[in-house]
Write a structure and sequence with these properties.
CATH superfamily of the largest domain: Type I PLP-dependent aspartate aminotransferase-like (Major domain)
Structural class: alpha/beta
Shape: globular
Largest sheet: 7 strands, mixed
Order of helices and strands: HEHHEHEHEHEHEHEEHHHEEHEEEH
Helix content: 25-40%
């Protein structure tokens, strides 16, 4: 008699899940303090806003706390109305998510199926490829050109199986920017049945002269969606709040797969308040631009290459293995992001901090390079 095969719970898991690599975020401050016995640690690893949220946002959150025993508004109507007013569109052009990462996941559910193709850059934001893997689609990776999305090569990569293109602009982790004229050329080339997602998480930090027309391009076409986040410019990373701008038909497909109550009530009131405080946004943008130039000047003095950034971080080419420099910075109480897990060995990615944090990083980097 043959033995009965032993069945395990692992057999119930979809085979493609084994291909997923869990996301590895930047080290938290408390972990570095515990591991190295440090008390004064700064984190410049996750592109967070070092100035925190606006005071009006904090007050709005405090006022909303007593009601957290109730479910949030499932349609996030007040927030979506505020966003619609900001972007001068109607309510049916806006969808909100538990971070723009959730919207990427919803797009995967709604659009991708087995054997479909998703075109992405290489390297690119780490949460794009998993949407293909989860849905048994194929991620078609198009190499960057000098750290910038090669939109002509992306257009050339489109096949009969292509369902979508995910393009982060400014790019993460490089910080580079594709001008509007090049985005327009891509959109004119891509067939109208292929969804093009412009992930603009860092859009508010852009000061490139050919910038500002992506929303008009989106609204003029049936197949373009823009993603934005409150995590960066508005400093609401812990509340997980992102949104999509798109033609109403695309928004309806998102709503078909969106979970109820996906955006919590504190995030909703914080988002409305954040949109009102334009002074805080302007101050953050100005400080970020100044901080980028502090990093550029330091890199020039130290003989390392910095990619021109249109985001709130700068990617630096060390010309040597990144891990020893990263560890030397950690010992000096400065957390940055190593490039190797991002597909960029010999690089570090550094968030633009407060003026004091920027200067501290520059000093620590000079010491780490000598170590």
């Amino acid at each position: 008699m043959s033995a009965t095969p032993v069945r395990t719970l692992a057999g119930a898991v979809k085979p493609q899940i084994a291909k997923l690599v869990p996301y590895s975020p930047g080290k938290p401050i408390h972990e570095v303090q515990r591991e190295l016995g440090l008390t004064d640690v700064i984190k410049l690893a996750s592109n967070e806003n070092p100035f925190g949220p606006a005071p009006e946002v904090i007050e709005a959150i405090r006022a909303a706390v007593p009601a957290i025993g109730l479910y949030p508004d499932a349609g996030a109507v007040d927030l979506r109305n505020a966003l619609a007013e900001r972007h001068q569109v109607t309510l049916d052009h806006i969808s909100v998510g538990n971070g723009s990462d959730e919207i990427l996941q919803l797009l995967g559910y709604a659009v991708l199926d087995e054997g479909d193709e998703l075109i992405i850059g290489d390297p690119t934001f780490a949460r794009y490829e998993p949407q293909a893997i989860i849905n048994r689609a194929v991620a078609v990776k198009v190499p960057l050109r000098d750290g910038v999305h090669d939109v002509d090569a992306m257009a050339a990569a489109v096949t009969d199986r292509t369902k979508a293109i995910f393009l982060c602009n400014p790019h993460n982790p490089c910080g580079t920017f594709v001008p509007d004229r090049d985005i327009e050329r891509l959109l004119e080339t891509v067939p109208p049945h292929v969804l093009v997602v412009l992930d603009e998480a860092y859009d508010e930090f852009v000061d490139h002269p050919d910038h500002g027309r992506s929303q008009a391009m989106c609204l003029a076409r049936p197949n373009v969606m823009i993603l934005r986040t409150f995590s960066k410019i508005h400093a609401l990373a812990a509340l997980r709040l992102g949104y999509a701008i798109a033609p109403p038909e695309l928004i309806r497909w998102l709503e078909q797969v969106r979970e109820p109550f996906n955006v919590n009530s504190l995030a909703q009131v914080a988002g409305v308040a954040a949109l009102r405080d334009e002074q805080h946004v302007a101050q953050t943008i100005a400080a970020n631009a100044a901080g980028r130039h502090v990093y550029y000047a330091a890199c020039e003095r130290l003989g390392i290459k910095a990619l021109p950034s249109q985001a709130n971080f700068v990617l630096m080419d060390l010309g040597r293995p990144d891990q020893p420099v990263y560890e030397a910075l950690l010992r000096r109480g400065v957390i940055v992001r190593t490039g190797t897990p991002l597909g960029l060995p010999q690089h570090i990615r550094v968030t633009v901090g407060t003026p004091e944090q920027c200067e501290r990083f520059v000093q620590a980097l000079a010491e780490a390079l000598r170590a």
